[in-house]
């Protein structure tokens, strides 16, 4: 049966907005502008005054460098042992989404601009026109979504910042890549349907032409605003205060692992080790759950 294994004693003042996980460390960003660093059992290691306003997004690269963005227009980063904040960027736009592919960082803002960073230097900018509320990147493809369409764009070689649109799919934010990595790409892409209450899983490999693997209409009672997944599992959470787990992703209909009612709005999720999922909610508390 699904259950909450751990709850943080410390919490954010207000909503916990973003989560990330890397090698036994859990990172949470809140509306209070703080980034909290936890161990895997949610013991607080340190709390850092990272931003002057609400944290929007967190992303951690393969080296453990943690990036954060805020509605104050800044992108900042911390390196282990996560005791000092440095600024990467300050601008007038709200950077609402970030994603790390290896050691490369991608940022997406409310004007539709996706920027690729390498070694903390701005490499290329791609104007995707529509506000970027959720973002992923993999092997020259960028996945972006706002409220109506998930767009997969292929970046063209060179330094032109040009791209071609691979496909446009009916869906809403957020999105996530999951499943086993085959031919250097995750097998699946998941996102809510346009109602916001159902889930869609799409075959992500080029040979599959982004065909729909399955759809689960109305699997949540209210809008889904948090997703995460790994090789075998997909987790979803939202305004109905519930986190739900799914497995057997290769079947025509996935197997439901059950649900947990948190009694408070679910804002963010991230997968940890040993089939666990971390949950950030509007009460500022971080929780670790198991669905097995």
Automatic annotation (TrEMBL):
Alphabetical list of SMART domains matching this protein: WD40
What organism is this sequence from? Glossina austeni (Savannah tsetse fly)
UniProt name for this protein = WD repeat-containing protein 55 homolog
Q: Which PROSITE patterns match?
A: WD_REPEATS_2 (PS50082)
Q: Which InterPro entries match?
A: JINGUBANG-like, WD40/YVTN_repeat-like_dom_sf, WD40_repeat_dom_sf, WD40_rpt
Could you say which residues form the signal peptide? none
Alphabetically ordered keywords of this record: WD repeat
Gene3D superfamilies per record: YVTN repeat-like/Quinoprotein amine dehydrogenase
WD repeats sit at 9-39
UniProt key word Acyltransferase: no
């Amino acid at each position: 049966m699904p259950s909450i294994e751990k709850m943080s004693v410390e919490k954010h003042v207000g909503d916990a907005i973003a989560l990330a996980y890397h090698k036994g460390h859990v990172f949470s960003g809140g509306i209070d502008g703080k980034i909290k660093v936890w161990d895997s059992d949610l013991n607080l290691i340190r709390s850092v005054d990272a931003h002057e306003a609400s944290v929007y997004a967190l992303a951690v690269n393969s080296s453990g460098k943690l990036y954060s963005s805020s509605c104050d227009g800044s992108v900042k980063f911390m390196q282990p042992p996560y005791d000092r904040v440095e600024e990467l960027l300050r601008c007038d736009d709200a950077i609402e989404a970030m994603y790390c592919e290896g050691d490369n960082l991608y940022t997406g803002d409310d004007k539709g601009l996706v920027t690729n960073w390498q070694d903390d230097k701005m490499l290329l900018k791609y104007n995707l026109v529509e506000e970027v509320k959720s973002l992923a990147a993999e092997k020259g493809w960028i996945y972006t979504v706002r409220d109506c369409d998930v767009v997969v764009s292929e970046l063209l070689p060179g330094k032109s910042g040009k791209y071609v649109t691979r496909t446009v799919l009916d869906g809403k934010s957020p999105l996530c890549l999951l499943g086993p990595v085959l031919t250097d790409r995750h097998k699946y892409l998941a996102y809510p349907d346009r109602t916001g209450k159902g889930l869609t899983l799409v075959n992500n490999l080029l040979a599959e032409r982004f065909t729909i693997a399955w759809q689960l209409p109305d699997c949540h009672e209210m809008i889904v605003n948090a997703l995460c997944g790994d090789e075998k599992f997909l987790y979803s959470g939202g305004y109905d205060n519930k986190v739900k787990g799914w497995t057997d992703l290769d079947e025509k209909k996935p197997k439901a692992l059950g649900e947990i009612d948190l009694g408070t709005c679910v804002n963010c999720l991230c997968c940890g080790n040993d089939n666990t999922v971390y949950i950030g909610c509007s009460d500022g508390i971080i929780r670790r759950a198991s669905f097995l």
